[in-house]
Design goal:
Blueprint (H helix, E strand, L loop, with lengths): L3 E7 L3 H11 L5 H5 L2 E6 L15 H13 L4 E6 L7 H7 L5 H5 L2 E4 L5 E5 L8 E5 H4 L3 E6 L2 E2 L5 E2 L1 H4 L6 H4 L4 H6 L1 H11 L4 E11 L6 E11 L2 H11 L8 H10 L8 E5 L2 H4 L20 E4 L2 E4 L13 E2 L9 H5 L4 E3 L5 E3 L9 H10 L5 E2 L3
Helix pairs in contact: 1-3, 10-12
The chain binds iron/sulfur cluster.
C-alpha cells in the first residue's frame, strides 16, 4: 500500500463533500488532532463571489472550520493576501465570508498586512529567505483550500500555487511582481519549501478554466483531500485532464521530497479519477507545446512564449509609503535613514527613488517593523 492517500468525494452539498473527503483520506493527520492553533489558507485572490470558481467556496470553509472545532481546535484563523491593489477584506466580503467570525469565532486575516518573520528556504531556487506572516508560522497546522484553475499563461492553481498569497505583497510588489519576474514556478517551489502544508483541499465545487479571476467557471461538484498536498495536487491535475508533468512546481517538489511523482504512487479512495474528472482547457492543449517546458512559460498578447527570467541584479527597488495610513512614529527612518525620512507633517517620505540593492535588507527591515504595514519594497 502506498503512503500517499487521497480522498475524492462528489455530490451537490459542498459541506458533505468536505467531510466525506476527509474521511476517505483517513481523517486528519495525527498532527492535526493535536493542533490548537490552525491557519486555513483560502484562495481570495480577487473580489468574486463563492461559486465563481475564482475563490474558495464559503461553504467549504465553513465545513473545514466545523471539522476543526469538532477536533478541539481553539484558535482558527482564515485568510489570504490578495494580489489586487486593495485590502483582502474586500475579497472576503465579496466571497460571503463576513459572517465567519461571528458564527464560529474565527479570525479573518489579511496576510498582506500581517506581521512577518524571515524564513530560510532550503534548497531554494529564487529566494534564499522569504518574509512569512507569523500567523502562519505560529500555527500548529496549516490547511490549504483552493479551487483548481488553469491559467492562460500555462500555470495551474492548485494547493501548492495557492501559497503564493502567503508572503505579503508589500515586500514583493503588488501583485507580487518580483515573483512573476523571477519565474512563478520556481517561486511557488520556494514558498512550499519555506512553509509546509499539513492538510490540503482542492475545492472542486466550481473550478476555473483559463483564468485566475475572470476565467470560465466549471462546476465539478467534488472535493479532493489529503495530508500530502503534492499527492492531492497530482490527483487534481488528472481530474482536470492535465498531465502533472506540465506543472513545473509539482515536478520540483516531487524531486525535492522523493515523490509522489505520479498517480501510480497514490492511493485514491472514493470516486475514481475517470468518473469524477472533467477536462479544463489550458495552453498545454496546443500541440505546438507538446515538447515545451513549463518552467518559464509566458503569454504575450495571445502568443504563448518562453522567456528567460531576468537576473536578480537587474531588478529595481522602488520603495513606497502609503502616507494615508502612516502614523508618523518614524520607525522606518530609524532603521533605514538612507531611504526613509519623517517630515514636519509627521509622515514618512522616500528620499531615494531607486536605492542601491545593498540597502535591501534595511528596507525590508523597515517594512517589517512598520506598525501599519504601509511600506512597499517594490512597486
Ligand atoms: S514605520 Fe510606517 S507608520 Fe511609521 S513612519 Fe514609517 S511608514 Fe509611517
Amino acid at each position: 500500500m502506498t503512503q500517499f492517500r487521497v480522498g475524492i468525494a462528489r455530490g451537490d452539498d459542498p459541506k458533505e463533500n468536505v467531510r466525506a473527503a476527509v474521511d476517505l483520506a483517513g481523517g486528519w493527520s495525527e498532527r492535526a488532532t493535536r493542533a490548537r492553533r490552525v491557519f486555513v489558507k483560502v484562495n481570495l485572490t480577487v473580489d468574486r463571489e463563492s461559486g465563481s470558481g475564482a475563490v474558495t467556496h464559503v461553504l467549504v470553509v465553513e465545513a473545514i472550520v466545523e471539522l476543526l472545532k469538532e477536533s478541539g481546535v481553539r484558535y482558527i484563523a482564515v485568510g489570504d493576501g490578495t494580489g489586487a491593489p486593495w485590502p483582502t477584506s474586500r475579497n472576503w466580503k465579496a466571497a460571503g465570508y463576513s459572517h465567519l467570525p461571528g458564527k464560529y469565532g474565527v479570525k479573518l486575516v489579511d496576510l498582506n498586512r500581517a506581521r512577518t518573520r524571515r524564513v530560510e528556504v532550503p534548497d531554494h531556487k529564487n529566494f534564499a529567505a522569504l518574509e512569512i506572516p507569523e500567523v502562519v508560522l505560529d500555527a500548529d497546522m496549516l490547511v490549504v483550500a483552493t479551487p483548481p484553475k488553469t491559467h492562460d499563461d500555462g500555470l495551474f492553481t492548485l494547493c501548492g500555487k495557492s501559497l503564493f498569497g502567503i508572503p505579503p505583497n508589500r515586500f514583493y510588489g503588488a501583485p507580487r511582481a518580483i515573483f512573476h519576474k523571477l519565474g512563478q514556478q520556481a517561486t511557488v517551489y520556494d514558498i512550499n519549501q519555506a512553509v509546509s502544508i499539513d492538510f490540503a483541499f482542492i475545492d472542486g465545487t466550481v473550478a476555473m478554466e483559463l483564468g485566475f479571476g475572470d476565467g470560465r467557471p466549471v462546476p465539478l461538484r467534488l472535493i479532493v483531500a489529503g495530508s500530502n498536498s503534492l499527492a492531492v495536487d497530482t490527483v487534481a491535475m488528472h481530474l482536470i485532464g492535465q498531465d502533472p508533468r506540465r506543472c513545473a512546481y509539482l515536478r520540483y517538489l516531487a524531486k525535492a521530497r522523493g515523490g509522489p511523482a505520479g498517480l501510480d504512487e497514490i492511493e485514491v479512495l472514493g470516486a475514481t479519477v475517470e468518473e469524477a474528472g472533467r477536462k479544463l482547457l489550458s495552453p498545454w492543449d496546443d500541440p505546438a507545446l507538446a515538447k515545451a517546458d513549463s518552467a518559464d512559460l509566458k503569454v504575450v498578447g495571445k502568443r504563448v512564449i518562453f522567456e528567460e527570467a531576468p537576473p536578480k541584479e537587474k531588478l529595481e527597488l522602488r520603495p513606497q509609503v502609503d502616507r494615508s495610513a502612516c502614523i508618523g512614529d518614524g520607525l522606518c527612518g530609524h532603521y533605514c535613514p538612507e531611504v526613509f525620512e519623517l517630515r514636519d507633517d509627521d509622515k514618512a517620505y522616500v528620499i531615494v527613488e531607486r536605492p542601491d540593492p545593498s540597502l535591501l535588507p534595511k528596507i525590508e527591515l523597515a517594512a517589517r517593523v512598520c506598525p501599519t504595514k504601509v511600506i512597499a519594497v517594490y512597486s
